[in-house]
Amino acid sequence: MEAEEISRLDREHVWHPYAAVHSTAPAQVVRRAHGVRLTLGDGREVVDGMSSWWAAIHGYNHPRLNQAARDQLDDMAHVMFGGLTHEPAVRLAKRLAELTGLDRVFLADSGSVAVEVAIKMALQAAGPGRTRLLTVRGGYHGDTFGAMAVCDPVNGMHHLFSGVLPQHVFAPLPPAGYGTPPDEAYLADLSALVGAHAAELAAIIVEPVVQGAGGMRFYHPAYLRRLRELADEHGVLLIADEIATGFGRTGELFGCDHAGIRPDIMCVGKALTGGYLTLAATLCTARVADAVGVLMHGPTFMGNPLAAAVAGASLDLLAERPWREEVKRIEAGLLDGLAPAAGHPGVRDVRVLGAIGVIEMHDPVDVPRVQDVVLRHGVWLRPFGRLIYTMPPYACEPGDIAAITRAMVAAATSRTPR
């Protein structure tokens, strides 16, 4: 089809995420994705500064991942996981257990489902009367009902459902700044809050070090370490939602590594398959698994062989490539390239951690205008709220990062009408 026909049919039939059904902003048609670039319907090539919502860490159309998918297709694309098993899933589970130190792996089909499974695990493993979770404000854990209930209850995306969601315990926002010295008063308040609710808590759930879609906020690892200590002190489980932070995005393999701690339950997804297929996992210790017993959850496509094979190849590729050096290089490029935005009247903050770069504005951004600006600079970004941000593929070269930061600064400082 011609790009115009795709756009017309899209407007007539497709409901896009986080959008009204009759959105005034047309979706960009993508014809091809290769390396770190998208080819749009009009033939333009743009650098993808989003890694397709942080998943395509190796870039697109990678020959190793393509071959893994082709090879697996020759055997089977899918088989039910109830009562059956297969090599790709077993190999992947073993690999994830080795990487995390968590013995048991439940393969889910999306990040939100992984969080739902983690909550179920915690509730089943907890003692009598422990039916609530504790988290911090500013968090985001997914769009399904259990996950929504531990997202920020006021400023999050799910306030429309606040009257029907379970009521959990929320600590204040962690003080901002990865490098900012820990606030002892906040640590004391955190300790008091956990202590006050310990008898009813099944688990503490947080995004380690980086709060993603809740605001792209970074916080000091000391707060995560203290939550681990409090969980141990009160016999509460610690759930780490590593869906956004896992597999190197923050400069460490997992966000928990910044604090030198291991959770009782961990959720991973997004980059797990390198952005090829939907797959996530909820991992837990043997102690948690034994306490749960039978877990009443079973996604139809659990352990999908095709997704598991590609995930295994993606983890192989990550182990082989110098991803730490790549992320450090991206971090340096983001720090340098975004610096001109700091101090601009409309800019509230500029922050970078690993392969995450954020310009926070004082006011909500005009998303269509920002996307017009960045597309004119040859870049694709998806801003939200007050944030113009990037989480680029690790395969980006310095020139690609420079293009992304120029586009972000232009979008943040330009007042050009749409």
From TrEMBL:
It is found in: Cytoplasm. The record marks 18 as: Participates in the substrate recognition with KAPA and in a stacking interaction with the adenine ring of SAM. Substrate binds at residues 53, 140, 270, 298, 382. It catalyses: (8S)-8-amino-7-oxononanoate + S-adenosyl-L-methionine = S-adenosyl-4-methylsulfanyl-2-oxobutanoate + (7R,8S)-7,8-diammoniononanoate. Its EC number is 2.6.1.62. GO terms for molecular function: adenosylmethionine-8-amino-7-oxononanoate transaminase activity; pyridoxal phosphate binding. The keyword Nucleus does not apply. One of its GO terms (cellular component) is cytoplasm. The keyword Cytoplasm applies. Its cofactor is pyridoxal 5'-phosphate. PROSITE patterns: AA_TRANSFER_CLASS_3. Keywords: Aminotransferase, Biotin biosynthesis, Cytoplasm, Pyridoxal phosphate, S-adenosyl-L-methionine, Transferase. Pathway: Cofactor biosynthesis; biotin biosynthesis; 7,8-diaminononanoate from 8-amino-7-oxononanoate (SAM route): step 1/1. The modification N6-(pyridoxal phosphate)lysine is found at residue 270. Homodimer. Catalyzes the transfer of the alpha-amino group from S-adenosyl-L-methionine (SAM) to 7-keto-8-aminopelargonic acid (KAPA) to form 7,8-diaminopelargonic acid (DAPA). It is the only aminotransferase known to utilize SAM as an amino donor. Belongs to the class-III pyridoxal-phosphate-dependent aminotransferase family. BioA subfamily. HAMAP family: BioA (MF_00834). NCBIfam families: bioA, PRK05964.1. This is Adenosylmethionine-8-amino-7-oxononanoate aminotransferase. It comes from Microbispora cellulosiformans.
